[in-house]
Amino acid sequence: MQSIEAEGYSIHFNGKGYEIINELVAEKNYSSIFIIVDSNSNEICLPNFLPNLSTDSRIEIIEFDAGEINKNIETCLGIWNVLTELRADRKSLIINLGGGVVTDLGGFVASTFKRGIDFLHVPTTLLAMVDASVGGKNGVDLGNLKNQIGTITIPKMVLIDTSFLETLPQNEMRSGLAEMLKHGLIYDKDYWEKFLDLSQIDFADFDTLIYDSIFIKNEIVKQDPREDGIRKALNFGHTLGHAIESYFLESENKKNLLHGEAIAVGMILESYISWKKGLLSAEEYLQIKTTIKGIYDEVVFDENDLIPIGELLIHDKKNEYGNIQFALIEGVGNIKINQSVENKLINEAFEDYKS
């Protein structure tokens, strides 16, 4: 597949990507290479990655425990200390090998260590490939609040090796699929319609769908790298989705949701809001709700959940001057950013989701 040119870096695919990593490492003559992994990618992905890395530079592996719960400043402190102990310097390279937690956290570690050292992403989950590794956003959670601390710093490159997906559980594949659905809903109706019946998808050609999803995200980011305007479109489903994800993460009586599972709910809720605000037809909303509910298990909410979820909305990063801002869809394939939504309509959306 042809490489995708992003703002200041490139996204390369499969075998060609390894060739370019090795060319980069040789050209830059890095003093040392640090590969950041979590406990999953260390066991499953690193053995397949290392044989493809050709270098005389010293290689060190830094592992942290897998899971969103470890995407925090304490994990970063541990990694910064290890980098210091292993004599990392401004001429070192960090390679982030793993899912979205690894690329988000590893990018933040690299962009802040010694005021910034080179890094690149090798995402190993579908979610990381089509979303987390693309666009230059890096960061960690603050308690249960998603991505409150971070930077926008671009990597030297991104390598998409879809062979890593062969080891991915089905629930993780569905989690990544949510971001692909979002890309269709906000940007390309034809792309969205490819997912209306998953039984008709030729998964032998799934690489093409991944490529198209990355292309869509990159096109939006190129227009607005700092998220001052249209890049907010990528937050469709995330205003409520992130609040739901955070609430389930902190609640002892709730089972944690994968990111894509929470975003799937968020997209249904925010599609309902779009419909009720006259931006979306009833037929379009029903299609969205039916399609997404056909892919993801229903999440159970009770009345006691809505108030704390609503309180978490005030921490959404799109908010301005204390006002909650939504990105809503104006017909499938189009977006309308900076939309205010009253609490009554949010509660109605939850009631409709349960129906």
Structural class designation? alpha/beta
Unreliable runs, pLDDT <50, ≥5 residues? Answer: none
Number of helices: 14
Fraction of residues in helix: 40-55%
Please tell me how large the radius of gyration is: 20 Å
CATH architecture of the largest domain: Up-down Bundle
The largest pleated sheet is described as:
4 strands, parallel
**Termini separation (Å)?**
43 Å
The CATH homologous superfamily of the largest domain is termed: Dehydroquinate synthase-like - alpha domain
The geometry reads as globular
Strand proportion, as a percent range, falls in 15-25%
In total, the number of strands is 11
User: What is the string of SSEs from the N terminus onward?
Assistant: EEHEHHEHEHEHEEEHHHHHHHEEH
Structure, briefly:
With 355 residues, the protein is of the alpha/beta class. It has 14 helices and eleven strands. The chain has two domains: 164 residues, Rossmann fold; 185 residues, Dehydroquinate synthase-like - alpha domain (Dehydroquinate synthase-like, alpha domain, Up-down Bundle), CATH 1.20.1090.
Give the SSE map.
Elements: E1 4-5, E2 10-13, H1 14-28, E3 32-38, H2 39-44, H3 46-49, E4 58-64, H4 73-85, E5 92-98, H5 100-112, E6 118-123, H6 126-132, E7 137-142, E8 145-152, E9 157-160, H7 170-187, H8 189-193, H9 206-223, H10 238-250, H11 259-276, H12 282-295, H13 303-312, E10 326-329, E11 335-339, H14 343-354
Parallel strand pairs: 2-9, 3-4, 3-5, 5-6
Antiparallel strand pairs: 1-2, 7-8, 10-11
Helix pairs in contact: 5-6, 6-7, 6-9, 7-9, 7-11, 10-11, 10-13, 11-12, 11-14
